[in-house]
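== Polypeptide entry ==
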Amino acid sequence: MRWFDAFIFGCCLTLIGIFCLPTENAHGAQAETTTTEQSETEPDSEPNSEPASKPESEQKAEPESKPEPKPTAQPDTRHISLRPYRIRIELAFASECRLTDFDRRQIFTRLPQIIERSAGEKWELNPPTPGENTAGVFENAWLTLPTSAGLNRLSAAQVLQQYPTQAFDKLFLLTVESAGIGYQIAGREFDVDSQQLGPLVEQTTYARPFLAETSFQILRNLFSAVVTIEAVEGDQAIVSEQGSQYLTPDPAIGTLQKRDFFVPFFRYLNRDREVKDIQMIPWTYLILEEVDRKHARCSISSGLRGILSSSRRRVEMQAIRVVPRFPETELALVPRGTSTQSYAGMRVQISPLNPQEVRQLQVAAQKESEETGKKVSFEKEYITEELLTNREGTITVKADPSDPLIWLYVRSGKALVANVPYIPGIAPRTAIQVPDDRIRLGVEGELAVLNGELIEEVASLSMQMSRIRSWAKKNDWKKVDGGIRELESGISPRQIFQDKLTVIRVTATEAAQEQRNRAAESRIATLCREAESRINRFLDPTGIIDFKAEIKDLRDLQEQERPKRRR
């Protein structure tokens, strides 16, 4: 063997020793460790081994294991201006909307980015404690008809059925469907505090990459701010908006402006501060006058007296912003109570002035008429339009974006039945409860008949007196005495008419009290007073006394002239 072959052989043996010996040592060490561990744990791993029993005293002292209580959500004690809106957005896609999975993922990815870039911290999409029904952007899976038509049929009760507990403040439901070559996105807002479902808003886009931007525009149009009424001073209210301390990057989002309108509502709480009932206040609006970062001042326009001024225990007073979204509103006049009468042919006067301003015009017109001696009409100065209800008792009031708030003066004949403020366009149709005016109309009819009888009685007395005068001039005193006896022997016509008026008044007043209709009671009293004054004026007994004195003077005059004629 040459020296070169011996060198190669030695190198091979060295390499074999380097790679093989550590492996064997490692296997040996692992085997030793495994053996040691098994020997240490061998008593516990035996199948027939029994755990050591504790003494009875230790077993009795051991407490029973109780299930851990579930963590309850702590109420947010921060001021409402420091609480951001917890926003939950759900998108539903129609089956034929021609969107791929990539397009849908793009919407879910870009929409939160746009919201964060525009609304900032005022809209909270990522809750600090994740849970069920929390804020965020999700795909809707419970809408039976994921289109604008299905969204329009949705009711607030259905939303509450899907979300019995809410960990959000606003729920926005959006649907995406095909519209020709484009896409139609529709949305509605559900406010948790008022439990009101807002009107439908639709928008069409023809660019698939801008579906997220279009969805955000609908969210911005749907969003309605919520304020808490902290103090009421006369016809002024101090309010604070939720999350007003958070400035938004885009000033056009969620910023209150002057002449914004709010509808107040009450949240009735139980002893555990849980909401048991919510009541919207009808025919009452808050008009924003002054705004700062934390508080705002609003004027109150209401058809109800002192509805917000009284203090209430365990009642939260809040208000939600409203915007006219419909071109017109169908207003129906319905009677209070269980009556099914339709108010056809009633006049509804529209005016921008409230009752106090109208009263000032009325006082000024009365002063002017007293000074000039001519009747001055002031209705033309405050009435902008007058409508007449149809057979079903409805009218159509058009919305005016430049001056949304109007006053409605409902009249039945000359009587003012109701006067309330309203903003046309916030709902497609609404109804105003009008007091049942049938009692007053019945009284007016009976008084009209009584007035006719009064006219006939006055005319009959006048004719009888005229005949007696003619007999006196002809010196036919026998007929004169008979006519006067006839006037005096009969029952006083004044008493007859007063008895009839009493029957009308008592019957109508009892009917109004049974219906608890104070307005009808007041009108009945006014009508009966006017009728009584007419009866006393035309059937005053002093008229007959004066007539007898007149006949006596004629007789004395004729007796004085009789000797002169004989001469």
